[in-house]
Write a structure and sequence with these properties.
The complex is a heterodimer of chains A (about 500) and B (about 350). Chain A has about 500 residues and is α/β, with parallel strands linked by helices. Helices cover about 30% and strands about 25% of the residues of chain A. In chain A, α14 runs parallel beside α15. In chain B, α4 (about 80-100) crosses α11 (about 275-285) and α11 (about 275-285) crosses α12 (about 290-315). Chain B is globular and about 65 Å long. Classes of the chains: A alpha/beta (about 500), B mainly alpha (about 350). The complex binds adenosine-5'-diphosphate and magnesium ion.
Chain lengths: ~500, ~350
């Protein structure tokens, strides 16, 4: 097959202080294909794309776009070459609507030199219609769902006439439904002659949508294959450098006494609407209870109520023999309840602080880390470095700000802290979101180990695979209620899909 | 906090060079001789005991206001009202200096300082409570309180505390309340050592105690981060941290004012003018929000400030130009991107890793 080459990166090397993010990387994308770029967090995917998009400059290497050699020293150059990028973190103005965001910086002017809002609106709606996007031109981004924000980002690149679209981990923040919608959009884009580079570390998505896939590990390319000629297992082993088991290895649970007993719990959300409507739930020592369900069905509020971050409106949360329904987070933590929150960057971490300062958030007050209010920084350093090694946090040292870590490594900081103080009950909410395979596996193993040592775990996740593989019992949440309890070994995905959509037997 | 690294040194040096260049152009353009100005600037800052003492005297309140700024920033609050705390702290320290008689030197000074710090802290209570319980931006309330402070102290000096029938001023403080001046012809006084001690204490408390950790858990950035979900999630009451941080910040502002009155001015009068509360914001940022950085930056700023007075006295160049230059300097020093282009040179990378602070 003789295909035209849209992007050809040759021998790209890029070093940051302490790490080589890209090492002699060759990367080719054919015109009109969906090309997946996969690799663990920190593999160098974003860096490579930032080089292509003119945000970073390579130390070495050449870039060819549509056959001609280019020096892309700034983003404008990339845009003029027809390259568009949707970043992992969105770059939208929250108080602006979709058209305002899309036009920002390239607003059409009317003959008095003012912004031609109507023209802009029309232009945006035309593009949206062409690619089958649904856009509400009056909706401010702050009120829009993540999926809508993402589509706005994509429209922004199309408005700037992008022919080659780079999507950096677009599905990390999406629900399964939104992911499906995104895939439809991507297919339409390719049908209309665009080329898409799709970054992810979810291999099932690669197999579903991509034509070809390039695997990176530790800054180097491990292999390029057509998705038709490879398998998830092969890609996974290229990614982490060893065979991985996508199944979680665990023995039958040995539940003992009841540790948590939630009785008729009702919780309101931030807008004052009822989000949790009478939940009963119990967890025993030595078992992992999973909560599955499409996001936004009250899981967030349930977890917040259990961990003291939100007041329950009604009901009891019996922990051993005590009602902790309206306790403070501090009291709840004192009882050895750990919490891996779904919102990593604002709740789980203070990204302005260093790794060690984040790691000691639940232990700074105890000996030997501090005594009489004064830190023993040597002991703190040892403690933090031990966690860094045990939980494989990839950072040259623990004095680095958490801000500078990749998402997966940030999550490992949270997990390391929460599991480090020997909790009796661990409440884990979306614990592997934005985390790569190797580390997902590690986090799952840690949760199972917690269980085997007699701990109790509540696992709340929108990833159905995860709940089904890790939990011993699963409750499906729909509109604030648990509509079904299942044994994950006895149901299949299709059945679960029905329960998640609110269909009862 | 970002740790100091070679990159910071490089940014600072690059900033200095650009500033010197701009200064050269500005001074030449106003018809003066730049090398002469440079000479007097240097002499005024560093030459001879008296100039050095005066430079240190200028640095004294700046150390405190810079630390006051960084404490509030690092708990996630944007306190711009330190100048106000400084005024009220100065007024009441001065009042205590003449009002209480028959005390020993040490106890009198301690009492005056304690009252100055207390009043300075109390001044910050309102904006802190308004922020925490009513959501009123502390930026706005502290800016307003700066104006209120000026009017309030001038009323007090003119009314209730007025002693002098001719000029609106309080009585002179008693000798027992004086912070001693050490060198002849210089207002340098023992308050300098208090300021340095307090800054070192702040360094210790912020970085090496669990109390400091709790305060910082909800902040530690250049942006107001209160209220922090991270703190609440860990079970650290971020409301209490925010209020405590504001009170400490205000107390340090009050201390700066108290030292000015007890050590240099020795009474409070209506026209007494402070702006160190504002300079402290710049210096706090220049020192990377670290107390030790604040000491270094204040010493530097104090020397330039005193050099500026000397230039003013010796030449036709107004000392305001010094303020302009310092502003330009801070502008460039904050412009981290200047060195971004240099990063690709291996030598810079190498030096950066050598100069970076100790790793844990
Ligand atoms: N601006 C930066 N400064 C220093 N190191 C960086 C920077 N950006 C990325 N890195 C490092 O480079 C490596 C590759 O990062 P990245 O390209 O973001 O990985 P990915 O997108 O595959 O998760 C990581 O080790 C990361 O910590
Ligand atoms: Mg990335």
């Amino acid at each position: 097959m003789n295909k035209e080459i849209a992007i050809d990166l040759k021998n790209i090397t890029k070093a940051y202080p302490g790490v080589v993010a890209n090492k002699n990387v060759d990367f080719q994308v054919y015109k009109g294909e969906i090309h997946a770029l996969v690799g663990e967090n920190g593999a160098g995917k974003s860096t490579l794309m930032k080089i292509l998009y003119g945000i970073e400059q390579p130390d070495e290497g050449e870039i060819f776009v549509n056959g001609s050699s280019e020096v892309i020293s700034k983003v404008e150059t990339a845009i003029n070459l027809g390259i568009g990028m949707v970043h992992q973190e969105f770059t939208l103005v929250p108080s602006f609507t979709a058209p305002e965001n899309i036009g920002l910086g390239q607003e059409p002017k009317n003959n008095r030199g003012l912004v031609d809002w109507k023209g802009l609106n029309n232009a945006v709606m035309d593009i949206a219609k062409k690619y089958g996007f649904e856009v509400d031109p009056g909706l401010k981004m702050i009120d829009a769902s993540v999926g809508v924000q993402q589509r706005t980002e994509i429209l922004k690149t199309l408005y700037r006439n992008a022919n080659i679209l780079i999507l950096d981990e677009p599905t990390a923040v999406l629900t399964p439904q939104e992911t499906d919608e995104l895939f439809t959009v991507i297919r339409t884009l390719v049908d209309e002659g665009k080329t898409v580079i799709f970054i992810t570390h979810k291999l099932r998505e690669v197999m579903e949508i991509a034509d070809r896939v390039t695997v990176m590990r530790a800054g180097e390319v491990q292999g390029v294959s057509e998705t038709g000629n490879t398998s998830i297992t092969e890609l996974a082993s290229q990614m982490v450098g060893r065979e991985v088991f996508l199944q979680v290895k665990k023995d039958e649970a040995q539940p003992t006494e009841k540790i948590l007993d939630v009785q008729d719990l009702w919780v309101h959300d931030a807008r004052g609407l009822l989000a949790v409507k009478g939940i009963d739930l119990d967890i025993k020592k030595g078992e992992i209870v999973g909560i599955a369900g499409v996001e936004g069905n009250g899981q967030t509020e349930l977890v917040e109520a259990l961990t003291g971050l939100r007041k329950a409106s009604k009901g009891k949360v019996m922990y051993l023999d005590e009602d902790i329904a309206s306790s403070s987070p501090k009291n709840i933590r004192r009882k050895k309840i750990a919490h891996i929150p779904e919102d990593r960057t604002n709740t789980g971490l203070n990204t302005q602080l260093s790794i060690w300062e984040n790691l000691i958030g639940n232990s700074y007050f105890r000996k030997p880390l501090s005594s009489r209010g004064i830190f023993n920084l040597k002991k703190v350093g040892e403690h933090a470095n031990k966690l860094r090694e045990d939980f494989d946090i990839r950072a040259p040292n623990v004095s680095l700000k958490v801000k500078s870590l990749s998402g997966g490594n940030q999550q490992k900081v949270v997990v390391a802290r929460e599991l480090s103080e020997d909790p009796s009950l661990t409440i884990a909410s979306q614990p592997t979101r934005g985390v790569d395979i190797g580390n997902i596996e590690a986090i799952h193993e840690q949760l199972v180990q917690m269980r085997d040592e007699g701990g109790a775990v509540l696992l709340v996740s929108a990833e159905l695979d995860e709940v089904m593989a890790v939990a011993d019992r699963v409750g499906v949440m729909y509109e604030g209620q648990i509509v079904k309890w299942v044994n994950p070994k006895e149901v299949d995905q299709a059945q679960m899909g029905l329960y998640m959509a609110g269909v009862k037997d | 906090m970002d740790k100091f690294s070679f990159k910071d040194v490089l940014v600072t040096v690059a900033g200095l060079f650009i500033t010197v260049f701009i200064a050269w152009v500005l001074i030449t353009a106003t018809g003066n001789n730049p090398s002469e100005v440079a000479k007097y600037l240097y002499e005024g800052g560093f030459k001879g005991t008296r100039n050095i003492a005066n430079s240190l005297y200028q640095a004294t309140p700046l150390i405190l206001t810079a630390v006051a700024t960084l404490v509030s920033f690092r708990v996630g609050m944007f306190n711009i009202g330190i100048n106000g705390s400084m005024y009220v702290g100065a007024l009441y320290a001065g009042w205590a200096g003449y009002r209480f008689t028959g005390l020993g030197h040490f106890s009198h000074v301690t009492l005056c300082i304690a009252i100055g710090m207390f009043v300075g802290a109390a001044w910050m209570l309102l904006p802190a409570l308004l922020r925490v319980y009513a959501g009123v931006s502390e930026i706005i309330s502290t800016i307003i309180l700066n104006f209120v402070a000026v009017l309030f102290v001038s009323y007090m000096a003119n009314g209730p505390f007025r002693a002098d029938p001719i000029a609106p001023a309080t009585p002179r403080i008693l000798e027992t309340a004086e912070l001693k001046q050490i060198f002849p012809n210089s207002q340098f006084n023992t308050g300098f050592f208090i300021a340095v001690f307090v800054a070192i204490l702040a360094h210790f408390v912020l970085n090496k105690t669990t109390f400091g950790y709790e305060l910082r858990s909800g902040g530690d950035g250049l942006v107001g981060m209160y209220p922090s979900r991270f703190s609440s999630y860990l079970g650290i009451p971020s409301d209490r941290s925010a209020i405590t941080g504001m009170l400490i910040s205000g107390a340090l502002g009050g201390l700066a004012g108290a030292i000015e009155v007890l050590g240099a001015v020795r009474y409070f009068f209506q026209e007494l003018e402070f702006n160190q509360g504002f300079d402290g914001i710049l210096i706090g940022i220049l020192g990377k929000l670290e107390p030790i950085g604040a000491i270094i930056a204040s010493l530097f700023y104090g020397a330039i400030k005193n050099g500026g007075f000397y230039v003013d006295y010796k030449t036709d160049v107004a000392r305001e130009i010094i303020i302009v230059l310092i502003s330009i300097l801070i502008f460039f020093v904050s412009a981290q991107k200047i060195v971004k282009g240099l990063e690709k040179y291996p030598i810079v990378k190498k030096l950066d890793s050598i100069f970076s602070r100790k790793k844990m």
